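[audit] Reproducing an earlier prediction to check determinism. Same input, same settings, fresh worker. If the tokens differ from the archived copy the diff job will pick it up downstream; this log only records the rerun itself.
[audit] input (200 residues):
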Amino acid sequence: MLSGQKFALWDFEDKNDNWKKAQSSSIPKIIAIPTTSGTGSEVGRASVITEEKKALKRLIFHPNMLPTTVLLDPELTINLSPSLTESNGMDALSHNLEAFCSPADHPMARGIAVERCRLISENLLNAYKNGGDIEARGRMLIASASFQRGLGAMHAVAHSIGGLFDSHHSTLNAILMPYVLEANRHKIEKDIEYLSMCLD
């Protein structure tokens, strides 16, 4: 993002169309090769970076930050520790739940989120129990992100807490998940019932 730019990193924070300050032609093509299954960075146009002096997570955005090529190689995730497998898997689930329950109307994104939730429900436990299960690892890579309808309260709160306490983002999403779902139960109960039916 910063190659060939005359502005500093924080000048590109995702506020007030700051991304338009960038010299777009100087941003190189990006090839993403994920080594975990959960962050979804490989399908994003932004980067979340902690400003340590202020204990604050900031979003740096530019449309050209979206990778042009993504290589999903499950062998790169083999024997990822069980704790990282679990927490990153829950991060993936939170992405998909938030995309599925979003009030924005996007039927294709909703369908993608349902399928990715199914992949997670069928493969996360296997990947956790057996770090060398290449099929489960591959399926978790496919399921790792679903941003088509934005993010919700799980991520909003996790970003704030993570910046203040330098806590692991995926673990925070997992901890917050039941509380956010319960707080929004009156709005998403039918969605969750439908999702549960699809996963049965």
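[audit] rerun output stored. Observation attached for the diff report: The beta strands are 31-32, 46-51, 56-61, 69-70.
[audit] end
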